[in-house]
Amino acid sequence: MSGGEARDAKKLVRSPSGLRMVPEHRSARSPFGLDEPPWVPDKECPRCMQCDTKFDFITRKHHCRRCGKCFCDKCCSKKVPLPRMCFVDPVRQCAECALISQKETEFYDKQLKVLMNGKVMMLFFPGATFFVTLGTSDKSELMVCRLSNNQRYLILDGDSHYEIEIVQISTVQILTEGFTPGGGNTRAIGMVVQYRLPGSPELTQVKFTAGEDLSCNKKLSATWLAAMHKVSGARAGEQEK
Fold this sequence. Notes:
This protein is of the alpha+beta class. The chain contains 2 helices and 15 strands. The chain has a 7-stranded antiparallel β-sheet with strand order 12-11-10-9-15-14-13. A two-stranded antiparallel ribbon has the order 1-2.
């Protein structure tokens, strides 16, 4: 077990919103997770915050588990999975939040799983294989790359072992080939990752290149790179909010 996965134990907790399976140690939380929002106090929401219906004995108020706002049953009737908050079961969400959560389903059910355990056809692999070049070195090492089980580290395993903390990654540039001035398909062949080491203001660079001689690995590598691109793009978009 790597250092990035040494504290993966989880516990079942009950919150006002529902049952959650959360890491025992806060330091092991996924960087893709969300904190539960504070609920708008009942006394501050006499009416539905969507349709303005007045709450009374018949029209009850409900809190959206994603945004914490107060709605009537009509405006907050959907129960949708919310893995980013570690909920065990689908939870009640307003229409807007439910749509966001549904769009994230692919992200959590597909992209992160690809990064943690690669898949080509019906075969599973513990990551994807690349030639990895550190910094300005002219030497590369064949390494298996994958996301740690707690989603906090990008793990590189070969003769050497490296762990890059996801929250320290500054940029991810996907390298492609096959582009022509008139258009056409491109193929992902690698990526360049820039990240900061803890306590250092300087950026460190790592280059990943899919080996042409690893024909059985090409499709997996391309799938893995596409997932990495989507994941890094999603994180960058949220950090800009």
